Amino acid sequence: MRHRILFGSVTVLAMMVLATIAADASHPVTDTRVPSSAMEEALSYKAPFGDARSASPDIIEAGKKLYEGKGACHLCHGISGKGDGPAGDMHTPHPPRDFTDCKFQKERQDGELYWIIKYGSKGTGMQRLIPGMLSEEEGWKIVAYVRSFCSAQP
Prior knowledge:
This protein is an all-alpha fold and 154 residues long. The protein is built from seven helices and no strands. It has helices spanning 2-25, 39-44, 57-68, 74-77, 102-107, 110-119, 136-147. Helix 3 (57-68) packs across helix 7.
């Protein structure tokens, strides 16, 4: 009897793991995490300094300080930006974004990245940071820094 319960428990656990993997596989890492109902709003957001991909070095440096400090982005996304931070593995089934993925960088607009910082991402560990932890200007500086992780800028 005990073996049947153990076998049943292991089987249920294995099925849950496979379902999680299958669910995650249906969502490519480049998919947006902005809900379709908010996409128009997200795309309307523009950085006060222009395109984040071409931000000045001083804005990128300020974004780096916020990413590694006040914003605490590095805890999940990692210092490297690869989604390999010490708290990153706590977020399943949607791990933190890999900001070094240039395909992701190319497919997402600045406003989408900003929207996620502002409102968070439902179903992931990403919490809203604006206005609680960051100002709007600081959020944009983090977007500029995040853009710098792709060395082959799209």
